[in-house]
Amino acid sequence: MPFNVGPLELVVVLIIALIVFGPKRLPELGHSLGKGIREFRSTVSGENKDEDEKVPEIEDSSTEVKAETPEPVEGEVVTEKRA
Predict the structure, then answer these.
(1) What are the tens digits of pLDDT across the range 3-12?
(2) Angle subtended by helix axes 7-21 and 26-45, to nearest 10
(3) 9, 17, 48, 59: least buried by Cβ within 10 Å?
(4) For residues 44, 46, 48 and 49, what is the CA-based torsion angle, rounded to 10 degrees?
C-alpha cells in the first residue's frame, strides 16, 4: 500500500515535531536526519569515501606493552669535546 503524503500531512507532522522536540532542537534534528540519509544513500550506491581512506587500527588497551631491554654492545665509548 503506497503512502500518499500531501502538504497537509507534512504540516501536521512538523507541528507535532515542533511540540515534541521544541524550536531549539528541531534544526539540529533536521541536520542529523539529512546527514543520516546522505550516508545511507552513499552506502547503498557503493560510493562510500571511508573505504578509500586507510584508518590506522587502534590497539586494544588491555594488551600489555613490554619494554625490550637493549643488548649490551662491546667497544669503546667515544666522546667529543668541542672548544
Answers:
(1) 788 889 989 9
(2) 120
(3) 59
(4) -160
pLDDT, tens digit (0-9, with 9 covering 90-100), for 40-52: 999 988 765 555 4
Give one DSSP letter per residue of 11-56, joined into a string.
HHHHHHHHHHH-TTTHHHHHHHHHHHHHHHHHHHHT--GGGTS--P
- Domain membership of residue 76 (yes or no) is no
Give how far Cα 83 sits from Cα of 79, 80, Å: 13, 10
Distance, CA of 60 to CA of 31 (rounded, Å): 33
Does any domain span residue 1?
no
Residue 43 lies in a domain: yes
